[in-house]
């Protein structure tokens, strides 16, 4: 690969052996480079985006108005997130996170505070992403000497959580998922007398199941069954848990205007029963 154009110290436009154009991201990758120079071997672990990729256009437009250090910070946070989560995040995160970091720092420096009303829910229901958000907040404090509010970790976690859904990025929203999970948890805790203590390992497992439920719900991949055997069996065995699950179904139908199938209600009742037995 050879460099065709240096966009800034962190971004270069390159062409490969087939003359396909790519965007190469990497800290200092463009520093002192000239068009026509070969891409150094130590840049092979950097991030590549094909110029025809829909994210590439957004990124190029963003780089015209944002200092390159914000892309470098975003890349460092994304690298950390992918190592911690053992997954590849959606490439659009480079655009969304770079833009968000720049805006967050501008807000902080101008004394403008924007309240994230779902910060607690994000921290509680997306703890892995929240820890990464805390890492990003600390990184900004060290590199840019700017003190962001604690809830900024939740804002960063929101972007990380969304980017984990590579195939359903447009359908998934971590804030909406957190709201749905919180509504279900509220119904279950009041209906079954379950403790919401973060030290309650059984409640933590229940929340994990609710995350998968929210994922399926917003990706429109609800569980269904032809015979509803589990649904009818659990209705006989665990009537209180099933009644609680039916309250959840009624609530979701009223708020989201979508009906939960019997199979989802059955699995929900099963998880409710398990957490209520260990309260």
Q: Please tell me how large the radius of gyration is.
A: 23 Å
Distance between the termini: 60 Å
**Low-confidence runs:** none
CATH topology value of the largest domain: PTS-regulatory domain, PRD
| Strands, count | 4
The biggest sheet, with number of strands, parallel, antiparallel or mixed sense and barrel status, is: 4 strands, antiparallel
| SSE run | EEEEHHHHHHHHHHH
Shape: elongated
The chain-level mean pLDDT equals 85
The strand line-up of the biggest sheet is 1-2-3-4
> How many discrete domains?
3
What is the percent of helical residues? 55-70%
Going by CATH, the architecture of the largest domain would be Orthogonal Bundle
Description:
By secondary structure, the protein is an alpha+beta fold. The protein is 58% helix and 8% strand. It is built from eleven helices and four strands, in the order E-E-E-E-H-H-H-H-H-H-H-H-H-H-H. A four-stranded antiparallel sheet has the order 1-2-3-4. Strand 1 and strand 2 form a beta hairpin. Helix 7 runs antiparallel to helix 10 and helix 9 packs parallel to helix 11. The chain starts with a strand and ends with a helix. The mean pLDDT is 85.
